Amino acid sequence: xxxxxxxxxxxxxxxxxxxxxxxxxxxxxxxxxxxxxxxxxxxxxxxxxxxxxxxxxxxxxxxxxxxxxxxxxxxxxxxxxxxxxxxxxxxxxxxxxxxxxxxxxxxxxxxxxx
Length: 114
Ligand code: 5GP
Hints:
Blueprint: H1 5-10, E1 18-21, E2 25-29, E3 37-43, H2 58-74, E4 82-85, E5 101-105
Antiparallel strand pairs: 1-2, 2-3, 3-5, 4-5
This protein binds guanosine-5'-monophosphate.
Protein name: Histidine triad nucleotide-binding protein
Domain HIT: 5-114
Organism: Geitlerinema calcuttense NRMC-F 0142
């Protein structure tokens, strides 16, 4: 499989503002923030999209959510709230084919589902 841009960031081939790293994932600031605070939680395992995750990824998926929560807390987003979004595939507008959680906050977000 060709390395995605996120795998290149994980391998330090491309620079990024890394907020968190552990054995299973990284959290980086989004290069084109859609809110005052916008970071991505990315598994080191290159899963193309949420729909391509398997039952064996159960623990990893939980870890990604827990990491989103922990990094949001460290970034001071917890008190006022934040949004976690996953775009899975073409209809959702996923542009990087490597699973990632968007975490958006730091301001009142527009209602996207109304
Ligand atoms: P998607 O549309 O696939 O759900 O989101 C991909 C996100 O990755 C976008 O918000 C985009 O701004 C971000 N992104 C794309 N390339 C880079 C990059 O090279 N560095 C960083 N930090 N973010 C990126």
